[in-house]
Amino acid sequence: MSKRNYTNLNVNPCKMCMPMGGSLAFKGIEKSMIIIHGSQGCSTYIRRHIAAHYNEPVDIASSSLTEEGTVYGGSSNLKKGLKNLIRLYQPSVIGVLTTCLAETIGEDIQGIIREFILEEDLEDKVHIIPVSTPGYQATQYEGYYYALRQMVENLAEEVAHNEYINIVVSDVTCEDIRELKRIASFFSDKIIILPDISDTLDAPYTSEYSKLLSGGTKINKIKLMGGARATVEIGALIKDAYSPGKYLEETYGVPLYKISVPIGLEYVDEFIKALSQITHKTIPKELELERGRMLDGMIDSHKYNGEGVGAIFGSPELNLAISSLCIENGLTPKLVMTGSKSKKLKEIIEEKAKRFHMETIVLEDSDFSTLQPMVKQCGINILIGSSDGKFVKEKVKVPLIRVGFPIHDQIGAQRKLNVGYKGSLRLLDEMTNTLMDLKHDDYRDRMYDDYYTPLLKA
Ligand code: SF4
């Protein structure tokens, strides 16, 4: 019997599939709905993850491809699904996301949608946006940006120059988006946030159930993005082919500022400087005070963080920003792992770690079964990432700080603030306090072993 090669096999991968990211992007658009073209399981899996993370009802339709649709094509299933969805939800935008199955049988979703619009006479009544998101091609990270790019390609128009600043956000929390808006409002009241999940996935309680949650980026704002003053794209690592900001730059000449997630001093400064440069406004006193408070907090905690050796895992963008925060504060990000492929992530983190005389190992396209033994070998004492790391936490007994997506073993993920000076300081305090707890939890045992036992033996 020939020996199987497991070298490229992922066990418990540190990623989710492309339509997951695409769904998250569409959830930030006003009056939008999603239909996943494939088997029902794909949509159930995505719905379940999003609902558990945000603690909100999450509706995602499915074209429910069966054996027949798989063999003869799923056009009629998709059209039926779209018809039902429009009747029940009356959305303004529909994202049609493909799956492994739909892509493998070579479904022409663009063609099916064109036919459907003509048959149902829907031109100008609803925007139906096809996004090719085969689960096997990339991860939720690429799916998220690609869906945003497709929205912009389908909706942005050749418009006269306007005063708006486009801010394309990455996989941050609802509270983070509120904070990004607050910071941006110091520079301009004309901001387009794409996508804006701050209300749709963190909605206030109401006694009446609404099928489509209010909030999200308005379609007429996306249309204006082609005439904006600039695009600030939080996505330093995303490839051009997936980048909405790159499309706006190449098609409409909108200047593009590609930046990292504003976590940590360097990257928050970068975000604020970009806004200041675009608007020609000086940085306001209030933000300077917040920066000063963050510096003060960094001084308070620096003596504890030197003992921190971290393993960070999740999407490339969050990995980069959190590693940067750790490095700036003396906590060594010894292991950085992502399920995506990103050479740039490795280059940037290694270069920054070197500047601070730290050594770091960056694992791309990797999984938790690779990480787990390395946590022990590298003396990791703090894990930072999504709930998917909880099995490693249980096995190796190292505390886990939940950041990123998905978080389903705790509540409040959508309310955590991680960006800006305030959010960075909150996250830094959480990391420092976790390390302090570790020290306090076992210092009596360690003192006993290190001092008292040798004295007894002497
Ligand atoms: S990996 Fe493919 S089959 Fe699995 S949920 Fe994603 S799209 Fe569906």
Quick recap:
By secondary structure, this protein is an alpha/beta fold. It has 17 helices and 13 strands.
Features:
17 helices; Rossmann fold; five-stranded parallel beta sheet; 458 residues; single chain
**Count, helices:** 17
CATH architecture of the largest domain: 3-Layer(aba) Sandwich
The percent range for helix content is 40-55%
The distinct bound ligands, ions and cofactors come out as: iron/sulfur cluster
CATH H-level name of the largest domain... which superfamily? Nitrogenase molybdenum iron protein domain
Detail the poorly predicted runs: none
- Biggest sheet, spatial arrangement of strands: 11-10-9-12-13
Overall body shape:
globular
Give the DSSP E fraction (strand runs of 2 or more residues): 5-15%
Structural class: alpha/beta
State Rg. Answer: 23 Å
Query: What CATH first level of the largest domain would be assigned?
Result: Alpha Beta
Average pLDDT number: 94
How does this structure look, described?
Keywords: Nitrogen fixation. Belongs to the NifD/NifK/NifE/NifN family. With 458 residues, the protein is an alpha/beta fold. The chain folds into three domains: 18-154, 3-Layer(aba) Sandwich (Rossmann fold), CATH 3.40.50; 165-279, Nitrogenase molybdenum iron protein domain (Rossmann fold, 3-Layer(aba) Sandwich), CATH 3.40.50; 286-442, Nitrogenase molybdenum iron protein domain (Rossmann fold), CATH 3.40.50.1980. The protein has 17 helices and 13 strands. It has helices at residues 18-26, 40-54, 67-72, 75-89, 100-104, 109-120, 140-155, 174-185, 219-224, 244-252, 265-279, 285-305, 316-328, 343-355, 368-377, 390-396, 420-457; strands spanning 32-37, 61-62, 93-98, 127-131, 165-168, 191-194, 230-234, 256-259, 309-313, 332-337, 361-363, 382-385, 400-402. The strands form three sheets. Strands 11-10-9-12-13 form a five-stranded parallel beta sheet, with helices on both faces. Strands 2-1-3-4 form a four-stranded parallel beta sheet, sandwiched between helices. The chain has a four-stranded parallel beta sheet with strand order 6-5-7-8, with helices on both faces. The chain is globular, with a radius of gyration of 23 Å. Bound molecules: iron/sulfur cluster. Residues 17, 19, 38, 42, 45, 99-100, 135 line the site of iron/sulfur cluster (SF4).
